[in-house]
Amino acid sequence: xxxxxxxxxxxxxxxxxxxxxxxxxxxxxxxxxxxxxxxxxxxxxxxxxxxxxxxxxxxxxxxxxxxxxxxxxxxxxxxxxxxxxxxxxxxxxxxxxxxxxxxxxxxxxxxxxxxxxxxxxxxxxxxxxxxxxxxxxxxxxxxxxxxxxxxxxxxxxxxxxxxxxxxxxxxxxxxxxxxxxxxxxxxxxxxxxxxxxxxxxxxxxxxxxxxxxxxxxxxxxxxxxxxxxxxxxxxxxxxxxxxxxxxxxxxxxxxxxxxxxxxxxxxxx
Length: 269
Hints:
The protein is mainly α. It has one domain. Helices cover about 75% and strands about 0% of the residues. The protein is built from 11 helices and no strands. The longest helix is centred in the last third of the chain and has 32 residues. The protein is globular and about 65 Å long.
């Protein structure tokens, strides 16, 4: 059989049409195209505003940005470690087998949480040591406050990981980008690199509804004013309890929907 070596606009158009259909039928893909430029613009715009308003900020607390980066990585890597373990089952087309096995959903989630901690430890411990070596910033030197920061950030990351897992169950790998990018939607609103006061008033209400906001505000209070705000950690814990419960409920509902619609065995696009 001879294979035509001529250039075919029709074949090109057919492939473009295929990719267009995939994009059009998947709202997570469309969201992925929109949100990143928006997140970048908001985050660096607010940061620029804050630096302009506080010329002596870097002299006052040079370690705040490094601490923010490390705590943000705990939040992001915690969720990513959870989601990657879940995605591995989807890539192997093993979810149907898991859901038909005696393994309960709560047990499955717990195993993903444990893997999240393992992945996080492997990634973050060397980074914190490098921060001491290169910049003289010792995250471990935060003491008991670090435990409160860590617990709240991990609860948030698991709650979001559970929600994303449910969306993947229901929508298949067409929603895969959520596993990698969902957390970045919260980046400008969690006030990782700047205080809540920099945001417009109407956005501040949204920021205070997110548990990580309290962690990053607490970190700045500790590094700049040397004061541990236990009240902020308790408020974050209360919000995390609601968020985690909502994530578990959403996962149960999405799992039930996936079973009814038969998407557990159709984890492709």
